[in-house]
Each structure stands twice: as structure tokens, then as C-alpha cells.
Amino acid sequence: MLLVTKAHHSSQVSQGQPAPSLGLQCPGGRNPWTGVSQFLQTSQKIIQFASGKEPQPGETVIYVAGAFDLFHIGHVDFLEKVHRLADRPYIIAGLHFDQEVNRYKGKNYPIMNLHERTLSVLACRYVSEVVIGAPYAVTAELLSHFKVDLVCHGKTEIIPDRDGSDPYQEPKRRGIFRQIDSGSNLTTDLIVQRIITNRLEYEARNQKKEAKELAFLEAARRQAAQPLGERDGGF
């Protein structure tokens, strides 16, 4: 998963075609690690995960937005804290398009595509609804459409929009914006770094083991090539 290329989420790579290679090819010519995801989203899959409930009178509609990539306990802790902000919360999570996530996170993010991230977030008990492909800026139209009472963001850095503006300027202007500290220091970047570090340590151990095995085989080969009387233990 972490060997995906920067184009693995790009709409310019047609479905069924291999993404740019890292030099690892399977016999058929397609790269088994960097191909575009073939995950197919259907309405039935979404229904299986979604609550199907609309906000009821007296409920507080809370909007959160982000990538929610590699959905982890840090995300859950944040959503739980948001859930506690109201007696009857109705949390709407806006998930950004893959290309938008790559714009503000860079590197090879997102690791999971939009469809995979959608189902991951919908599976969280604190989330009532998901906006698939939400706009990066929380606009007046979005707030009015969903009748949002409160907008929350974690303690992670807020990256400016493409035009340099604050994506939360409208909810801040209305006085309905709050930053929430989840109490967790776990991030997607940290998970990725752990995986990469463990992978490098694993490869280093294997290289040492392989070097010892090759040295043993070379010593055995040299001994076998010596005359019988000159071998170790010979007479």
C-alpha cells in the first residue's frame, strides 16, 4: 500500500491501467503494488455502513472535514470529543477528493482512495453522515444546506485554500468554529513512518542474515575445492 505512486489517485490514470512504476513488475507487465485501485463503490455498500437517519429537531448538527486517511484511533478520539460537545449531536464528516488531499498533504497521499475512506468513516459510531468529495473551504452554502450549528477541526495545521484564504473563514466569521484537541498524538504521517521504519529494519535484518548465509556457502565451496589432504580436519 505504501508503495503507491503519486499518481495512484489521479483521474488521469484510466481504470485498469498500471500507474507509473517503481521498477517492480509482475510477469504480465502490470505492477501488482502500484496499480490504480479497482475498488468499486456502490449505493448498496454505502447503505450497509450509513445510519440512514436525518438530523432530528433538537439535534446539534456538527460539521468536520478532512482526509481521514488510514482511519485510526486518533481520528476516533477526535470524533468522540466532538460527539461530547452536544447532548444530541449529529456529526457530518466531509471527506475531500483524493486530488485535494494530495494538494495539501503532498507526497503520495492519500494512501486510501475516497471510496475506501468513506466506508472507514461511516463505520465510526460517532458519525451520522458523510459528504463524499466535500469542498475544501467550508462555505456559506455548505453551512446553510446542512443547517450546520458548529464546525470543528483538530489541532493539526490548517492549510490555506488554493487562493491562500482560510478554509474556515466563514464559520469563524459566524462564531461557530472550534478547534478540538483529541488528546492523541497519533497521525497518519506517524503510522506511515512507523511502517517505513519497520520495513527498513526488516530489510536490514534479512540482508545481514543473507550475508552470513552467503559467507558460509562461499567457505564451504572453497573447502570443497581444496585437495582432500588440505581441507580442515584432513590428514
Question: Mind explaining what this structure looks like?
Answer:
With 235 residues, the chain is α/β, with parallel strands linked by helices. The chain folds into 2 domains: 43-185, Rossmann fold, CATH 3.40.50.620; 187-219. It is 36% helix and 11% strand. It is built from 7 helices and 5 strands, in the order H-E-H-E-H-H-E-H-E-H-E-H. It has helices at 43-49, 73-83, 98-105, 114-122, 140-145, 169-174, 188-225, and strands at 60-66, 89-95, 129-132, 150-153, 177-179. It has a 5-stranded parallel sheet with strand order 3-2-1-4-5. Helix 2 (73-83) links the parallel strand 1 and strand 2 (89-95). The longest helix is centred in the last third of the chain and has 38 residues, at 188-225. The protein is elongated.
SSE layout:
Elements: H1 43-49, E1 60-66, H2 73-83, E2 89-95, H3 98-105, H4 114-122, E3 129-132, H5 140-145, E4 150-153, H6 169-174, E5 177-179, H7 188-225
Parallel strand pairs: 1-2, 1-4, 2-3, 4-5
Family: Belongs to the cytidylyltransferase family.
EC number: 2.7.7.14
Keywords: Lipid biosynthesis, Lipid metabolism, Nucleotidyltransferase, Phospholipid biosynthesis, Phospholipid metabolism, Transferase
Query: What is the CATH homology-level superfamily of the largest domain?
Result: HUPs
Structural class by helix and strand composition: alpha/beta
Q: What number is the mean pLDDT? A: 82
**What string gives the helices and strands in order?**
HEHEHHEHEHEH
Helical proportion, percent range: 25-40%
| Strands, count | 5
* Distance, first to last CA: 58 Å
The strand line-up of the biggest sheet is 3-2-1-4-5
Query: What is the makeup of the main sheet?
Result: 5 strands, parallel
CATH class categorisation of the largest domain: Alpha Beta
Number of domains: 2
Reported CATH architecture of the largest domain: 3-Layer(aba) Sandwich
Q: What is the name of the CATH topology of the largest domain? A: Rossmann fold
Rg computed from alpha carbons, rounded to a whole number of angstroms? 26 Å
Content of β-strand: 5-15%
So what's the overall shape? elongated
Uncertain stretches: 11-36
Counting DSSP H or I runs of 4 or more residues, the number of helices is 7
